[in-house]
Amino acid sequence: MTPLKRIIITDKKHSLPFSKGLLAKSLTAAGISPKQAYHIAELVEAHLRKNDKLTVTSKVLKKVILQNITASAGEEKTEKYKNWQALGALDKPLIILIGGATGVGKSTIASEIAHRLGINRLTSTDSIREVMRVIFSTDIAPALQESSFNAAKAIRTPVDERMDP
Question: What's this model's pTM, rounded to 2 decimal places?
Answer without folding.
Answer: 0.65
